[in-house]
């Protein structure tokens, strides 16, 4: 219905009325569900990378402290003891979804709700009329540029989320920002917020490899089996706000230690093989490089592609270049082509690969199987499967959805191999 109306209305008029349409939807949602955020401690988490990991770590810290929580994010919709996998292929659904989620959290006796907040959601005012107690800003790098029009507009969409915090009726309105990011000060300088920063420099001597993190937080040792320097930053973001909330350092340390894995985020797939197999959602140049750096001591066999549908075409050759820098073998494959020709997508990634010869296998299952076979033959290898993480579908032309899970496919192909 809405798509038909959009086709009938001239674009200049559409650009004028659509923001008001989405604003009114947000307002009506809050009215219908009686402004449930006012009955909860609501924490937003935003940034280009690390939203999901920070959200899950913070949730475990709050649960370790005895709080009943709700989580809305890329991985799942959790309300108290109810846990549903997010199959919507969007982090922050619209159409009253967020307000209904918050009302359900109140009804189920939750005290805290953690919401991943996205720039795409902010464009449609999905964060409006949510009274936040805090917002954690993880980092910012170029993403969704075609959708927003420029990096500056993308950044402004993130700042719009922070301004929603500033308008909140809650007393403290903590703006918790990663001071290691160049854009952090923009968030910390907003009026009507309580600025709080965190930095890897605050964590004492931070030790991080592919399976372990050790740091110090307020003179308390914190250890994690998540691995990766980027996860050390995510831990500090979650811990910093938890401490402001009054959670004890003991419970913070326990909550971090209890976070054994985060689905689709540097997730290890183990079926008895002798080499690491990692599935990760990394789909931006920065996140891809962070994963590859973490496994730099291995001979990395890398399976990657890129989303179609005109989404962030600029990053395709950059990701190819990063793969060339860190990967012993590069296997390019289908990801989510939408209505784009997958062969053309892979050609654009290949344009960034100057010296090495990538292997192109369009069928994603065959690409994963080939990577596993290579790793079995090559000592000190690691198979890094990136781009989809827990994504439940491969999106094809005309809105087709093929059920999919990189983790299940990797397990199935490993079982055949061993």
Account of the 3D structure:
The protein has helices at 2-8, 11-32, 51-64, 97-107, 119-123, 145-148, 151-166, 184-188, 229-244, 249-258, 285-294, 316-326, 342-350, 364-377, 406-417, and strands spanning 41-46, 69-72, 76-79, 82-85, 112-116, 134-137, 174-178, 194-198, 207-208, 213-217, 220-224, 267-268, 277-280, 299-304, 327-332, 359-360, 381-386, 393-395, 401-403. It has 2 domains: 2-258, UDP-N-acetylmuramoyl-L-alanine:D-glutamate ligase, CATH 3.40.1190; 267-417, Alpha-Beta Complex (Protein-Tyrosine Phosphatase, Chain A), CATH 3.90.190.20. Strands 4-3-2-5-1-6-7-8 form an 8-stranded mixed β-sheet, sandwiched between helices. It has a 6-stranded mixed β-sheet with strand order 12-13-17-14-15-16, sandwiched between helices. Strands 9-10-11 form a 3-stranded antiparallel β-sheet. The mean pLDDT is 94. It is an alpha/beta fold and 418 residues long. The chain is globular and about 60 Å long. Helix 3 packs across helix 9 (229-244), helix 3 (51-64) packs across helix 10 (249-258) and helix 14 (364-377) crosses helix 15 (406-417). Residues 264-389 form the Mur ligase C-terminal domain. Pfam families: Mur_ligase_C, Mur_ligase_M. GO terms for molecular function: ATP binding; tetrahydrofolylpolyglutamate synthase activity. Belongs to the MurCDEF family. MurE subfamily.
